[in-house]
């Protein structure tokens, strides 16, 4: 396969999908800018803030991307690059983009609340409680894992730590200036250009002022930062940092594409399709669980219905941010596969678990980017820094999302004192950070992490289920949501079943029980959804009969 041909075909498919299938999904959802979004009706200057489309896209893309569309696709090449590319393209267009956009718009139509709230309104309170417990647990795990990953990265690469801190300072200044001149179109363009230039300069500056701290100190610093990012106005830190950081990934994508067009690197990876990997298992369901971000990821529904939906200035932005943002991530996932196609399968298998997928990605893409005239070492360092920067966006976004989840659980409490305490953003964030500290102190996340690949896809299936019920109750044909929903339930439930059996046989009973519990949770929510639709049908038939009489 010629890499230039692969890139061109992928770009044509994704752009065509945006303007055709994206338009179709928008029409099915009844997107209408005459509908006022929650960011305008509930504007509070903290979470609900009407925001320019490029900034919301930058925040959303930076939040959903992280390291997911890099790690998953690189590992999935163990089954062959052909099935990986096919699933990424089909999954990204017909599964992921639909999942992200529908989750986002469902939230917009429900006061910018999370999928958990939408479940309560469409399926019932029991469904909401189950979903919130599941999503809160997932987010806490992600916070703990990414805090650990970032802390270790900062310890091993002090220059990355200094550049990251400089990024945060720059983001605060950018947010302040942008708010000061929010009514000026030209001021936003000028500050964006200056901000992006300074961000890239700080990468260079960071090499001269490395910050050397111990692992435990970095964990404390990161969790304090996550707390601050969660409680402060979204326009002050989270939004501008994600927006500026997104240009790191845009730059990475552009540099990679230009490098491929200039050098047209040789494809050394064979085109064999591997049905069973000795390290991973069978291609179904493992491939569809491994490639989550880039194809479809349940975590995206938490971002789409958590922070992003509260910032959309108009409904049509959901197509740009939700559908378009997912397709950009899909293209990044394709670049991740390409990054390991330039090495032989023998080298890939040898290095995958010894060096890790991020190192493979950085080395492979660094070799490609070096074609534009910079050293391969510098190019690889830039790629690694970009991955680390996006890991930090995942950390702060997840903390805010976990805070929303915690608050929404207490919104329905009748006890006013308990409700007031539980919905307080400082108390809620403190509980999130405390839970993360407990998890980090036990170190259990190293053992529990593998199960959340399956849980993440289950989360996607549950989000699609919620959207399907909402659409059906509003008399909208939901086949474009139901088909990916059924497939994702098949993937997630099969994976959890295999995971439970395997761990039970290996004597890892805790993981087996967890997998079984998630399996049961999915079945219960399916049953609740079915009953909800049955009750809705009964109400309609009763109403029609009464009207006939």
TrEMBL record:
Topology class, membrane: Multi-pass membrane protein
Superkingdom of origin organism: Bacteria
Gene Ontology BP terms: cellular response to starvation
Pfam families: CstA (PF02554)
Keywords attached to this entry: Cell membrane, Membrane, Transmembrane, Transmembrane helix
GO cellular component entries: plasma membrane
Localization: Cell membrane
Residue ranges annotated for the CstA N-terminal domain, each copy included: 4-349, 354-494
InterPro entries, per database record: CstA, CstA_N
The keyword Membrane is assigned to this record: yes
Family classification: Belongs to the peptide transporter carbon starvation (CstA) (TC 2.A.114) family.
Name of this chain's protein: Carbon starvation protein A
Organism: Zunongwangia pacifica
Lineage of the species this protein comes from: Bacteria, Pseudomonadati, Bacteroidota, Flavobacteriia, Flavobacteriales
């Amino acid at each position: 396969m010629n890499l230039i041909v692969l890139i061109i075909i992928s770009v044509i498919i994704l752009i065509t999908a945006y303007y055709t299938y994206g338009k179709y999904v928008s029409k099915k959802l009844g997107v209408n800018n005459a509908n006022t979004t929650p960011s305008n009706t509930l504007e509070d200057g903290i979470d609900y803030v009407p925001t320019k489309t490029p900034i919301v896209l930058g925040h959303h893309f930076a939040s959903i991307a992280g390291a997911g569309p890099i790690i998953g696709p690189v590992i999935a090449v163990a089954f062959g690059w052909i099935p990986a590319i096919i699933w990424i393209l089909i999954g990204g267009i017909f599964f992921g983009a639909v999942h992200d956009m529908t989750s986002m718009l469902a939230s917009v139509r429900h006061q910018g609340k999370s999928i958990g709230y939408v479940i309560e309104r469409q399926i019932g309170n029991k469904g909401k409680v189950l979903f919130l417990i599941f999503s809160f647990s997932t987010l806490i795990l992600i916070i703990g894992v990414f805090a650990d990953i970032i802390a270790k990265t900062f310890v091993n690469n002090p220059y990355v730590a200094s550049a990251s801190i400089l990024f945060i300072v720059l983001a605060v200044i950018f947010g302040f200036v942008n708010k000061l001149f929010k009514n000026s179109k030209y001021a936003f363009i000028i500050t964006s250009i200056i901000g992006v230039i300074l961000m890239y300069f700080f990468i260079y500056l960071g090499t001269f002022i490395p910050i050397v701290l111990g692992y435990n100190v970095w964990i404390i610093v990161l969790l304090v930062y996550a707390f601050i990012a969660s409680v402060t106005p979204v326009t002050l830190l989270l939004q501008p940092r994600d927006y500026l950081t997104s240009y790191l990934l845009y730059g990475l994508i552009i540099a990679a594409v230009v490098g491929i067009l200039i050098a047209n690197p040789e494809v050394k990876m064979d085109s064999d399709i591997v049905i069973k990997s000795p390290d991973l298992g069978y291609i179904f369901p493992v491939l569809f669980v491994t490639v989550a971000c880039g194809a479809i990821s349940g975590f995206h529904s938490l971002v789409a219905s958590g922070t992003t939906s509260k910032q959309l200035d108009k409904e049509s932005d959901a197509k740009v941010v939700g559908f378009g943002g997912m397709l950009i991530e899909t293209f990044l996932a394709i670049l991740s596969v390409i990054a390991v196609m330039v090495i032989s399968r023998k080298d890939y298998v040898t290095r995958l678990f010894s060096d890790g997928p991020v190192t493979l990605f950085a080395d492979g893409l660094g070799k490609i980017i070096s074609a534009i005239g910079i050293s391969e070492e510098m190019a690889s360092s830039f790629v690694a820094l970009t991955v680390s920067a996006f890991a930090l966006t995942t950390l702060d976004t997840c903390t805010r999302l976990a805070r929303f989840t915690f608050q929404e659980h207490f919104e329905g409490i009748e006890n006013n004192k308990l409700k007031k305490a539980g919905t307080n953003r400082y108390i809620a964030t403190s509980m999130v950070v405390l839970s993360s500290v407990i998890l980090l102190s036990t170190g259990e996340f190293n053992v529990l992490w593998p199960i959340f690949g399956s849980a993440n896809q289950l989360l996607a299936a549950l989000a699609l289920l919620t959207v399907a019920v909402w659409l059906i109750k509003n008399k909208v044909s939901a086949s474009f949501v139901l088909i990916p929903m059924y497939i994702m339930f098949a993937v997630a439930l099969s994976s959890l079943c295999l995971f439970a059996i395997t761990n039970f046989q290996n004597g890892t009973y805790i993981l087996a029980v967890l997998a079984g519990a998630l399996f049961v949770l999915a079945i219960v929510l399916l049953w609740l959804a079915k009953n909800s639709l049955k009750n809705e049908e009964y109400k309609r038939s009763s109403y029609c009969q009464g009207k006939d009489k």
